[in-house]
Amino acid sequence: MKNPTIKSTYKDSIRNITFEVMNYFEMEQNQIHQVLDEYYRRYGAPIPKDGTTVRIVCDPCGPRPPSKENPTK
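The structure assignment produced for this chain is given below.
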């Protein structure tokens, strides 16, 4: 399966965190929130520091776990 190529971005302006969600289709803000909720609940990913960018790669079944290919910048 090819890697997703469409990037949807959500910016948390209070903490200056940018979330980049890579998927196979364009996502609306409420869909991005669902992905973020699942990502942090399912994998227990650490809460990002202020001023960082978090890249989350999604498959049709949901977000992939954090890995070297799925870094927090």
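Interim note for the steering committee: The mean pLDDT is 89. Residues 1 and 59 are 9 Å apart (CA to CA).
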